Amino acid sequence: MTRTLTVIAAFLTLSVPAALAVPPADQGKPENPGNSQSAPGQSAEKNAAKACKAERGTTAETIAAFKEKYGTNKNKANAFGKCVSGKVKKAEEQAEQQEARENAAKKCKAERDLGLQAFKDKYGTNANKANAFGKCVSKLAKQQTS
Asked: What does the alpha-carbon distance between residue 118 and residue 132 come to, in Å, rounded to a whole number?
């Protein structure tokens, strides 16, 4: 019995300091690393809030001007929320347009690879039809966003 207690005591004596020395798995990592596992739109909302806070300023004059610009209710108290939501919507629209341009560029490249002269004849508008790729991307990107 004494031997068992001695072994358990030795085990606990060695294991407790070792357990305390190992940091938790998530220690040292940033709270929001910006990966795909973070909440959708979270960084856009944080950036928008920071921009609105900076725009609002700290003086009575800048706060009043901010409320006048963004506030929509009787006392303009909703100005900060309106500012943030407007900036988030704008950022989302820009991201959507960028994605549409990238997708359009991939489609145009694939179409161009099938036949360069036919591609230039279809999309080119200047004398040597050298602007065909840009015209193609523009056309497809507009179709995708509308």
From this structure: 10
Residue numbers of the domain that contains 103: 43-145
pTM assigned to the model: 0.50
Q: What dihedral do alpha carbons 49, 50, 51, 52 form, nearest 10°?
A: 50
Reply yes or no on whether the pLDDT at 31 is more than 50: no
Give me the amino acid identity at 59: T
The pLDDT score that the predictor gives to residue 103 is 87
Please check whether residue 7 lies inside any domain of the structure: no
Q: Establish if 35 belongs to a structural domain.
A: no
The 3-class SS string of the chain reads: CHHHHHHHHHHHHHHHHHHHHCCCCCCCCCCCCCCCCCCCCHHHHHHHHHHHHHHHCCCHHHHHHHHHHHCCCCCCCCHHHHHHHHHHHHHHHHHHHHHHHHHHHHHHHHHHHHCHHHHHHHHCCCCCCCCHHHHHHHHHHHHHHC
Whether 11 is in a domain gets the answer: no
- The count of domains in the chain is 1
Q: For residues 143 and 56, which has the higher predicted lDDT (pLDDT)?
A: 56
In a domain, 110, yes or no: yes
